[in-house]
Specification:
Blueprint (H helix, E strand, L loop, with lengths): L4 H11 L1 H8 L7 E5 L5 E6 L5 E3 L6 H10 L8 E5 L5 H9 L5 E6 L2 H10 L3 H5 L3 E5 L6 H5 L3 H7 L2 E4 L1 H4 L3 H38 L1 H6 L15 E4 L5 H10 L5 E5 L3 H6 L6 E4 L20 E4 L5 H4 L6 E3 L5 H8 L13 H11 L5 E4 L16 H8 L7 H10 L5 E5 L5 E5 H17 L2 E3 L11 E2 L2 H8 L8 H5 L9 H28 L9 H16 L2 H10 L1 H16 L6 H37 L1
Parallel strand pairs: 4-5, 4-7, 5-6, 8-9, 8-13, 9-10, 10-11, 11-12, 13-16, 16-17
Antiparallel strand pairs: 1-2, 2-3, 14-15
Helix pairs in contact: 1-2, 1-5, 3-4, 8-10, 10-19, 22-23, 22-26, 23-26, 24-25, 25-26
């Protein structure tokens, strides 16, 4: 039999020298045995310590077995495949023959020796030459989200098809179970992020433009790095359990730092507790209700994402510190002015608070009100504006219980069963479950966290403890710094004239795109009664796309505003490409024509909005 190892490694070396070296230097493993199948090609078995052999491929025809396996899984509707276990890779080659050049294949294999065996026995030149195929050997399950991050949008929109090579996966059951779980959790998080982006993209941009001046004048969280080393801190979330122990926070307020999420600000202030920091990342106008109080305490500092409503920023004068945002428009502004510092991969406001506490060097970190589940039909504590809204609507036929239940029913499609810290059955949502997994992951990587919520679901890695016990152990003898004195020393950003220059250059780019769109519209779309050459229109749009994609930054800014327009274009393109090899090519032209007629109108509106927003930002800075 021919040995393909050298040829495969040569191709792989161009894509990943590190991976090539790992495979090349993989140690011999006598537990795996190559045999010749009845069909004359290599098969694989594993020899147990007692000498028994377990076949991992067919003894008769591994290639036909792989074809039948892929037959049972493959679909024209799928565009992402995640292979768990490589074996000798027959199923990889069969799958690769079927997929389009747009599709993605991601392979996870624990054993580098097995990969070397596969590379020796099979020719993977086509798969390895495809940039849409990647191999990951013995990855840490906790790093799966990071590995898949570049594919997050694709995976969130189009999903993925898992392909488990079961005979091999069953031999490493515990490891591959963790891999599969990590993939599912990462996919769920990506979907949550994309759904948020799709729902709020235009609101993000509107708020960011309105916060433009605040962005340029706010110091960044980078200035708070390790500012309070080894100072204990309580992170207050607004879960139902906060009602139990909010009074205890007041008793120890002088010995501990307090960060609150925006939703818990009112409950704290109504109980006479002034936090040091309030953190806000939500673009919804509802968030403003959390700040609907008589007066913001003079020594309360806002930590914020620039996508929040500008009314909140305006309440804090100079007492606000910004974090870098993952929204494209905000990234563009800070890229051309001053980086603020990042708190990491934030999924929720509670994550942001946790990352901030870590960033400032605080220890221990004590979680309160972090239920991540319902208490009955209630998700928030008594004095939160969500709960207050229910209380304000109580009537003869609308009891508090009925109102809470009606709100609970709004989550029906995403509700999932769980178990609380007392082993009682409870309910959570897919979003809260994703938040929980993110916390678990971060806690396991970073250090000791005390969960003094005294309710809700368990957060493995965090030590469950009552708030009273946490206070007695960690909060009695602390010499607490005067937070305001520290933060007032943070230097404010200096006026940046380069941002103005960048804005003006970007406006020129928008104007060029607007002119290109107008030319296409005038030629093909202005007169609805005029018969147009659909083929010419589609071809002109393709030239337009090629030209647009040359400027990745501008394309990203546009996509960030009307995210759904780009998602829908991508989905329609995928459906058209899936049928591209079938007859009736004219039908594909018609479908592209319909797709592009809708898309160009939305692009025109996007450019109009961005041009208006950048001009307003320019005026604010002049």
């Amino acid at each position: 039999m021919r040995d393909f190892l050298k040829d495969n490694l040569k191709i792989l070396s161009h894509k990943s020298p590190e991976l090539c070296s790992l495979i090349k230097n993989a140690p011999n493993d006598n537990q795996y045995n190559i045999t010749t199948s009845k069909s004359g090609i290599a098969s694989l078995s594993r020899i147990s310590p007692d000498g028994t052999k377990k076949s991992l491929h067919s003894k008769y025809d591994p290639k036909q077995e792989a074809a039948q396996f892929i037959d049972s899984i493959y679909s024209d509707e799928s565009s992402n495949y995640i292979l768990i276990g490589l074996g000798l890779g027959y199923h990889l080659n069969d799958l690769h023959k079927r997929v389009s050049s747009q599709d993605r294949i991601i392979i996870f294999e624990k054993n580098p020796t097995l990969v070397r065996l596969a590379f020796s026995q099979n020719n993977f030149s086509e798969a390895l030459s495809n940039p849409g195929v990647s191999i990951h050997i013995n990855p840490d399950p906790s790093k799966i989200e990071q590995i898949l991050y570049e594919d997050r949008t694709n995976l969130a929109i189009h999903g993925y098809t898992p392909i488990d090579l079961k005979p091999l996966v069953n031999l490493e059951r515990d490891y591959y179970k963790l891999i599969n779980l990590a993939i599912k959790q990462a996919h769920q998080k990506f979907k949550l992020d994309i759904n948020t982006q799709a729902a709020y993209s235009q609101k993000f941009y509107k708020n960011i433009f309105n916060n433009g001046l605040a962005i340029t004048k706010s110091p960044g969280i980078v200035a708070t790095k390790d500012i309070f080393p080894s100072i204990p801190i309580i992170i207050v979330s607004a879960g139902p359990s906060l009602d139990k122990n909010i009074g205890l926070i007041k008793s120890v307020r002088e010995q501990i730092l307090v960060i609150t999420v925006a939703t818990a600000l009112k409950p704290l202030l109504r109980n006479g507790i002034k936090p040091d920091f309030v953190i806000s990342i939500d673009p919804n106008e509802d968030t403003i209700q959390s700040f609907d109080i008589k007066a913001i305490p003079e020594d309360l500092w806002l930590i914020y994402d620039p996508c929040i409503p500008p009314e909140i920023c305006s309440l804090f004068n100079k007492r606000k510190i910004m974090m870098d945002s993952k929204i494209e428009l905000a990234k563009w502004i800070t890229d051309h002015s001053e980086k603020k510092g990042t708190l990491g991969n934030i999924s929720s406001v509670a994550h942001a608070a946790y990352y901030l506490a870590q960033h400032m060097g605080c220890a221990p970190i004590i979680l309160v009100g972090q239920d991540l589940s319902f208490e009955g039909h209630r998700m928030h504590c008594t004095d939160s504006f969500y709960n207050q809204a229910n209380q304000d609507n109580i009537g003869a036929d609308r009891t508090l219980g009925v109102l809470e239940y009606n709100k609970y029913r709004g989550y029906t499609q995403s509700i999932t069963p769980t178990v609380d810290i007392f082993d009682h059955k409870s309910k959570t949502t897919k979003a809260m479950e994703t938040y929980r997994h993110q916390l678990i992951k971060e806690i396991n990587e970073t250090g000791r966290i005390l969960n003094a919520t005294e309710g809700g679901v368990s957060i493995p890695g965090a030590i469950n403890i009552s708030l009273k016990e946490a206070i007695i152990k960690h909060c009695q003898k602390n010499k607490l710094p005067i937070v305001n004195n520290y933060l007032k020393k943070i230097k404010l950003p200096t006026k940046n004239t380069s941002l103005l220059d960048s804005i003006r250059k970007q406006l020129v780019k928008f104007d060029k795109i607007k002119n290109s769109i107008k030319k296409i519209e005038d030629n093909y779309l202005v007169d609805n009664k005029k018969l147009i050459d659909e083929r010419k229109f589609v071809l002109e749009m393709e030239y337009f796309y090629v030209d647009l994609l040359k400027d990745k930054t501008t394309t990203a800014i546009m996509q960030g505003y009307d995210y759904m327009a780009f998602v829908e274009w991508s989905q329609q393109t995928k459906r058209i490409n899936n049928t591209a090899s079938k007859p009736l090519a004219i039908d594909h032209i018609q479908k592209k024509n319909l797709r592009d007629r809708v898309f160009i109108i939305r692009l025109s509106k996007t450019i109009d909005f961005l041009t208006h927003g950048f001009k307003n930002l320019e005026n604010q800075l002049c």
